[in-house]
């Protein structure tokens, strides 16, 4: 059984760890509130761009564009795929990082000719340690998503797609479905399905639109904004989920630390009571021995 000093040292160590987890919980809770507010501000922009693309399809549903599947339907595209994987810069966030990496591994298993584009130090180190090649590692911190960084990522992906190096582009990120749960999503960015932008059956615009210089060129200019907006929304959404997962993990760690402290306190009291009992027994035995010695000398 450990001594009183060892138990006391262990308790001090647990208390120090609990202070750290409590501080990390408070930091994560502050960040998650800011991230949710930022997410609410980004979605109207993304929805507005999507609505404008819908307007184009209302004007001419038969339009052909390199960013869309042909009107006849989806065709199997052979060749190299691209996958943008969004992870955190560090761990201590529950299963947040592992869930995103697991989805990326699943995509690699289904289509080995997939090139990885990674955001986040955790994912970057994971793939490097296992010898999985990375086409491009964006050395941005996942802690500070900005629209400018999203545009830079979108430009790299669109350049590879326009040059024919990538036939499909996917993005793997974590979506906060509500305030309590999150879900890893694998979304195909390019090419688009026309059904994503079709209007409701029977919905028509009463206004006539004139596209200058042409519908195709207007669409070509809008797609980069759409892709950039989607990536930015995914970055902010993932950051929000990361902080929520870290907050949950730190809360669980603090609760476990408190349970461990309670157990150590009981063990400490038990050992201390045993030590006190032993001291009393020794004192009593010593007193009896002295009394017996005095009686023998009388």
Topology summary:
Elements: H1 4-59, E1 81-86, H2 96-110, E2 114-119, H3 121-129, E3 136-138, H4 147-162, E4 168-176, E5 182-190, H5 215-297
Parallel strand pairs: 1-2, 1-4, 2-3
Antiparallel strand pairs: 4-5
Helix pairs in contact: 1-5, 4-5
Overall structural class, as computed from helix and strand content, comes to: alpha/beta
Q: DSSP helix count?
A: 5
Number of strands: 5
Q: Please give the domain count.
A: 2
Biggest sheet strand order reads 3-2-1-4-5
CATH-defined topology of the largest domain: Pyruvate Kinase, Chain: A, domain 1
Top CATH class of the largest domain: Alpha Beta
Q: Summarize the biggest pleated sheet.
A: 5 strands, mixed
Q: Label the CATH architecture of the largest domain.
A: 3-Layer(aba) Sandwich
Helix content: 55-70%
Based on Cα principal axes, name the global outline.
elongated
Using the CA coordinates, give the radius of gyration. 31 Å
The average pLDDT value, as a whole number, equals 79
Strand residue percentage:
5-15%
CATH homologous superfamily assignment of the largest domain:
ATP synthase, F1 complex, gamma subunit
Helix and strand sequence: HEHEHEHEEH
* Unreliable parts: none
**Span between N and C termini?**
44 Å
Brief account:
This protein has helices at about 5-60, 95-110, 120-130, 145-160, 215-295, and strands at about 80-85, 115-120, 135-140, 170-175, 180-190.
Question: What report would you give on this structure?
Answer:
This protein is of the alpha/beta class and 298 residues long. The chain has two domains: 4-18 and 252-297, Helix Hairpins; 28-248, Pyruvate Kinase, Chain: A, domain 1. 60% of the residues lie in helices and 11% in strands. It has five helices and five strands; from the N terminus they run H-E-H-E-H-E-H-E-E-H. It has helices at 4-59, 96-110, 121-129, 147-162, 215-297; strands at residues 81-86, 114-119, 136-138, 168-176, 182-190. A five-stranded mixed beta sheet has the order 3-2-1-4-5, with helices on both faces. Strand 4 and strand 5 (182-190) form a beta hairpin. Helix 1 runs antiparallel to helix 5 and helix 4 packs across helix 5 (215-297). The longest helix has 83 residues, at 215-297. It is elongated. The mean pLDDT is 79.
């Amino acid at each position: 059984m450990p001594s009183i000093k060892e138990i006391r040292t262990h308790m001090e160590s647990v208390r120090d760890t609990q202070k750290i987890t409590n501080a990390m919980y408070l930091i994560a809770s502050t960040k998650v509130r800011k991230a949710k507010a930022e997410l609410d501000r980004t979605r109207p922009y993304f929805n507005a761009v999507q609505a404008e693309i819908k307007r184009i399809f209302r004007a001419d549903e038969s339009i052909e564009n390199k960013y869309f599947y042909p009107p006849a339907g989806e065709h199997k595209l052979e060749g190299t795929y691209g996958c943008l994987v969004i992870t955190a810069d560090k761990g201590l966030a529950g299963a947040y990082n592992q869930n995103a990496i697991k989805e990326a591994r699943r995509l690699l298993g289904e289509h080995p000719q997939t090139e990885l584009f990674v955001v986040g130090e955790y994912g970057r180190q994971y793939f490097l340690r296992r010898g999985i090649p990375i086409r491009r590692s964006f050395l941005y911190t996942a802690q500070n998503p900005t629209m400018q960084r999203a545009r830079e990522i979108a430009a790299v992906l669109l350049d590879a797609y326009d040059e024919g190096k990538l036939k499909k582009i996917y993005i793997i990120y974590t979506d906060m479905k509500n305030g309590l749960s999150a879900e890893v999503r694998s979304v195909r960015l390019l090419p688009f399905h026309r059904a994503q932008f079709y209007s409701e059956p029977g919905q028509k615009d009463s206004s006539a639109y004139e596209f200058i210089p042409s519908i195709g060129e207007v669409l070509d200019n809008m797609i980069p904004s759409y892709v950039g907006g989607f990536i930015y929304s995914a970055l902010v959404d993932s950051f929000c989920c990361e902080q929520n997962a870290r907050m949950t993990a730190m809360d669980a760690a603090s609760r476990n630390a408190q349970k461990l402290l309670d157990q150590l306190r009981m063990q400490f009291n038990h050992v201390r009571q045993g030590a006190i009992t032993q001291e009393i027994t020794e004192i009593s035995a010593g007193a009896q021995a002295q009394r017996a010695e005095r009686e023998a000398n009388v």
